[in-house]
């Protein structure tokens, strides 16, 4: 089956299976704290390739959401630098206090949240076309055409004129993904997007993400679903106390973690399943 | 009770009652227009990030919330002309007092509406690349208006009732006309009952509409 593409043309990366490096995204010495005591990124270094699917795992409160929010420009950093597609994206020492330096780069990042964020006063279609029209300057006709395409690919055409309150949780999250894809992002961030869902709806959302993975979308995913993490990740990153403790291909991290802390964490979460 | 009801005397007073009703409606409607528009502006001021803008706006609201409406009206009628040496016609003065009172209460309704917009929606706006003013216009305002609507309407009805207070400063509204008729005809029971019925009939449909809206919003939220 050749499913129609969800992803616009992505930069082609040279594929180096085992390397942890990559110049699509580079976090260097990134420092972030909330107030005085709470350091959530402690001189963090992380690299990503354009076809990487990073799954971030770690104890609750270890700063996974903060990392995604920084990448999205929702939080600022106090030190270090982040580059995106080879360009300087965020600088902790810049005058804008560690927020994205380049709005154009920022709009190439898309994010889906744990909580439902479809705007309840707008229909599915209006939710999808709002930003493309207001931010990318598409005409209503163009944007509507595009929205139809995306919804069709996600099997949601019949919901075009529905309101968010008429959708199931799984459908809401799929529409939220479509809304983010409408802006043709180069990087997608997913922060526990299935955590609020009833179990029977988790798969439909995860399937959309798998479809994106097949189309080589660069993604950073935070999830507690280790089974899904193993399936979708090109690399798993275990974070604790604001640092990357260990990273590697999912097969290695889940079967032969090197660090005792990784092993401890995995034992805990896998036992809960 | 062997009181003999007699409504016949009222037939000769319909004209006067109608004139009074028109004044009451005028007071209520114009006050609502003032309150709906200025209320939103005031709400934005109270949400401003600068303390010196926020603070006077909040003080204005507290002044109207923490003093009796009757006193506000009396103050506007007697003190404002003395302070500023201006004379404004009584109806305009009534609209001013009632309108500003409503402005204060509506500002609070709008503010609750703005603050009820989930934080995550604001994050989503950033993720979608919307500029702050676009976020306010397309996402915050429509949601806030929806939440605030039942309260704004309830405030609207309540200002219709409060408008009866202007009778105390001799504005010839429905209440004032009723009072004159009642004393002239020695028929307070019939007159005041009729007046009450008119206020009631004006307010009830709106009150029902508010209930319907609230029920609809509840079911929408429950889904
Ligand atoms: N805006 C904020 N202000 C203060 N503390 C915060 C804020 N956001 C998150 N935190 C704290 O930072 C820590 C990391 O949070 P978070 O990034 O959400 O972790 P995770 O997603 O891994 O659970 C937590 O202790 C959390 O309470
Ligand atoms: Mg989190």
UniProtKB/TrEMBL annotation, chain B:
Q: Which InterPro entries match?
A: AA_ABC_transptr_permease_3TM, ArtM/GltK/GlnP/TcyL/YhdX-like, MetI-like
- Mind listing the UniProt keywords for this protein, alphabetically? Amino-acid transport, Cell membrane, Membrane, Transmembrane, Transmembrane helix, Transport
Q: Which domain of life is it from?
A: Bacteria
- Give all residue intervals belonging to the ABC transmembrane type-1 domain: 21-210
The answer on whether this UniProt entry bears the keyword Chaperone reads no
Q: What is the topology of this protein in the membrane according to its UniProt annotation?
A: Multi-pass membrane protein
UniProt xrefs under Pfam families: BPD_transp_1
Q: Report the subcellular localization.
A: Cell inner membrane; Cell membrane
Q: Which residues cross the membrane?
A: 27-47, 84-105, 151-172, 192-213
What family name appears in the similarity comment?
Belongs to the binding-protein-dependent transport system permease family. HisMQ subfamily.
Q: Which NCBIfam families match?
A: HEQRo_perm_3TM
What does it do? Part of the binding-protein-dependent transport system for glutamine; probably responsible for the translocation of the substrate across the membrane.
Q: What is the name of this protein?
A: Amino acid ABC transporter permease
Q: Which organism is it from?
A: Pseudomonas farris
């Amino acid at each position: 089956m050749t499913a129609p593409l969800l992803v616009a043309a992505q930069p082609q990366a040279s594929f180096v299976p085992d390397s942890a490096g990559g110049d699509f995204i580079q976090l260097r010495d990134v420092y972030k704290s909330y107030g005085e005591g709470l350091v959530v990124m402690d001189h963090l270094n992380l690299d990503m390739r354009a076809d990487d699917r990073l799954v971030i795992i770690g104890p609750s409160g270890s700063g996974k959401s903060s990392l995604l929010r920084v990448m999205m420009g929702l939080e600022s950093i106090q030190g270090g630098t982040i580059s995106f597609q080879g360009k300087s994206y965020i600088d902790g020492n810049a005058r804008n206090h560690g927020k994205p330096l380049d709005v154009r780069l920022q709009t190439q990042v898309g994010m889906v949240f744990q909580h439902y964020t479809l705007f309840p006063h707008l229909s599915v279609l209006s939710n999808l076309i709002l930003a493309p029209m207001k931010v990318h300057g598409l005409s209503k006709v163009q944007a509507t055409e595009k929205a139809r395409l995306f919804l069709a690919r996600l099997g949601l055409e019949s919901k075009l004129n529905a309101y968010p309150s008429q959708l199931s949780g799984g459908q809401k999250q799929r529409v939220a993904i479509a809304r983010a894809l409408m802006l043709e992002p180069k990087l997608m961030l997913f922060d526990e997007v299935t955590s609020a869902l009833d179990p029977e709806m988790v798969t439909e959302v995860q399937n959309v993400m798998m479809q994106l993975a097949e189309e080589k979308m660069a993604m950073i995913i935070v999830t507690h679903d280790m089974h899904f993490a193993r399936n979708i990740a090109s690399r798993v990153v275990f974070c604790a106390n604001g640092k990357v403790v260990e990273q590697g291909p999912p097969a290695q991290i889940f079967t032969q973690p090197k660090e005792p802390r990784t092993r401890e964490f995995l034992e805990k979460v896998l036992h809960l399943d | 009770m062997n009181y003999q009801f007699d409504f016949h005397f009222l037939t000769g007073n319909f004209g006067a009652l109608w004139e009074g009703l028109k004044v009451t409606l005028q007071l209520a409607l114009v006050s609502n227009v003032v309150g709906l528009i200025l209320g939103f502006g005031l709400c934005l001021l109270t949400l401003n990030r600068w303390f010196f803008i926020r603070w006077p706006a909040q003080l204005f609201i507290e002044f109207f919330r923490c003093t009796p409406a009757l006193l506000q009206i009396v103050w506007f009628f007697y003190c404002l002309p003395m302070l500023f040496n201006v004379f404004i016609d009584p109806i305009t003065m009534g609209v001013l007092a009632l309108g500003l009172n409503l402005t204060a209460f509506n500002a609070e309704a709008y503010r609750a509406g703005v603050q009820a917009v989930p934080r995550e929606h604001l994050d989503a706006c950033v993720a979608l690349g919307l500029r702050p003013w676009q976020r306010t216009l397309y996402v915050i305002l429509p949601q806030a208006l929806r939440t605030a609507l039942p309260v704004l309407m309830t405030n609207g009805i309540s200002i219709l009732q409060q408008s009866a207070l202007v009778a105390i400063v001799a504005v010839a509204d429905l209440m004032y006309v009723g009072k004159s008729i009642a004393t002239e005809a020695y028929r307070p029971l019939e007159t005041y009952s009729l007046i009450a019925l008119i206020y009631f009939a004006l307010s009830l449909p709106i009150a029902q509409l508010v209930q319907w809206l609230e029920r609809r919003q509840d079911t929408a939220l429950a889904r």
